[in-house]
Specification:
This protein has 151 residues and is α+β, with helices and mostly antiparallel strands. The mean pLDDT is 87. The strands form two sheets. The protein has a four-stranded antiparallel β-sheet with strand order 4-5-3-6. The protein has a two-stranded antiparallel ribbon with strand order 1-2. The protein has four helices and six strands, in the order E-E-E-H-E-E-H-H-E-H. It is globular. It has one domain: Transposase IS200-like (Alpha-Beta Plaits, 2-Layer Sandwich).
């Protein structure tokens, strides 16, 4: 029962793996920006009575592992995090971001990923998230074309 969190009227263990991707999947996030976003996300989670268990960024996305109380809908936290992170990152790193995204463009894609962590161990999810910046985890993007020229 050590992992369980307690509220005034509840005992719970609700953890979510959340992923945000940048608009157009642009590789805009630097390590410095990622560190800033992780610290800010932790602060924002604490303000909503959530606990950030793990976080990591890569150049075009951010992973979070968050424990939430049962009275908070995941979408509420997600919308709050995306809004505040975008606002603060755009303010702090405006010149860098403008190289990748239009001034009026959103920082994050409108979509997100959110899954409960019940199907795998917490340690597995934490290792996956914390391995995002490692070389062996870097994805290789291969551009494919569905319409090839006929010669």
């Amino acid at each position: 029962m050590n992992d369980y969190r307690r509220g005034s009227h509840s005992v719970y263990l609700l953890t979510y793996h959340i992923i945000f991707v940048t608009k157009y999947r642009k590789k805009v996030i630097t390590d410095e920006m990622g560190d800033f976003m992780k610290d800010l996300a932790e602060y924002l989670c604490e303000n909503q009575n959530c606990e950030m268990l793990s976080a990591e960024t890569d150049s075009d996305h951010m992973h979070l592992l968050v424990s939430m109380p049962p009275d908070l809908a995941p979408v509420k936290l997600i919308n709050s995090l995306k809004t505040q992170l975008s606002k603060e990152v755009r303010s702090r790193y405006r010149e860098h971001i403008q190289k990748y995204l239009w001034d009026d463009s959103h920082f994050w894609s409108a979509s997100y990923f959110c899954a409960t962590t019940g199907s795998v161990s917490m340690e597995t999810v934490k290792q996956y998230i914390e391995g995002q910046r490692t070389d062996e985890h870097k994805r290789k993007y291969i551009r494919t074309s569905h319409s090839k020229k006929k010669t």
